[in-house]
């Protein structure tokens, strides 16, 4: 075989045809790696220049299809994504880096660069690089690996509108217990994607079902609109405030009298914030593990008694709550009244796309496991 790269490496120990149209996999003695003219030479211990060469060789067949100005632009995009990939690749441990020798990883690299060279969309490129790093780090032949591979295939097919819909569907099913002021900031961070939902139509929902992001259950009355979802997820956020006097009155009604002053103060400080002489709940939803000390169960019972006496928002008030944050929320509120969206249930692949997007928006990790607890 007249391959100078293989000749320079010494005698070839093993050669195997893999039944592809592109050629042969060749394993050399030095355990390094490269690809030329449809051949993949598998090696170990590559430096970053070799990684760059490997990636370029993997996609050179596709790059050769472009002519003149398109070739210049495709190379610019390749180099742009390559720099981002190497930056992230440098942060993973050495054992995981060695996985670049694996055929499945090289195939994923090929697909990653091909997709970005075709589209040139910066956000898609960033997502594909993140997914590539996740693909390298995850164990092979696992559900997580299969989900990541499906997402890599699906993401280039999605528009900004469909990604926004998936993300808001994901958000509407999450219970992110946070301090109320922190959660309000999170709602503001969602504002940029709201406008994209105005371009969502029934065909978009049907397409998401077709490509495996979820399914629309046709049972009448099964789904919830956005207001109902928020009331279900964030039970403390949607209560009208009360005065301090009213708080003490409720405590007294349920037997917390003068002898329980320390406990009443503990309940007050654990659950409530004072704003303009009114008491608001400190958290958007209740989680016992957020409470400290030995009185968790007692505080939980006191909260239950408080909620019996306080007035919850109705759906109209929840709607107005979101419109006060940003009038553009009307798009989300109206779209979630459509039966196909109300009844749409995300698949693990759809939920993974949604949690990854929300993790970026909120700058915190929201794992897929929040939907699949043991």
Radius of gyration: 27 Å
- DSSP, total strands: 9
Structural class: alpha+beta
User: What is the mean pLDDT?
Assistant: 82
How would you characterize the overall build of this protein?
With 374 residues, the chain is an alpha+beta fold. The protein has helices at residues 4-9, 48-63, 69-89, 94-97, 103-119, 122-137, 143-154, 160-171, 180-189, 191-194, 202-210, 226-233, 244-253, 261-271, 296-309, 315-325, 329-335, 339-342, 348-362, and strands at 14-17, 24-27, 34-36, 39-42, 214-216, 242-243, 272-275, 278-281, 344-346. The longest helix has 21 residues, at 69-89. The protein is elongated, with a radius of gyration of 27 Å. α3 packs across α6 and α7 crosses α19. The protein folds into three domains: 45-157; 160-234 and 315-371, no CATH class; 242-309, no CATH class.
How would you summarize this macromolecular structure in one to three sentences?
It is built from 19 helices and nine strands.
Q: What descriptive keywords fit this protein?
A:
374 residues, elongated, disordered N terminus, 55% helix, 19 helices, three-stranded antiparallel sheet, 3 domains, four-stranded mixed sheet, alpha+beta, single chain
List the helices and strands and how they pair.
Layout: H1 4-9, E1 14-17, E2 24-27, E3 34-36, E4 39-42, H2 48-63, H3 69-89, H4 94-97, H5 103-119, H6 122-137, H7 143-154, H8 160-171, H9 180-189, H10 191-194, H11 202-210, E5 214-216, H12 226-233, E6 242-243, H13 244-253, H14 261-271, E7 272-275, E8 278-281, H15 296-309, H16 315-325, H17 329-335, H18 339-342, E9 344-346, H19 348-362
Parallel strand pairs: 2-4
Antiparallel strand pairs: 1-2, 3-4, 5-9, 6-8, 7-8
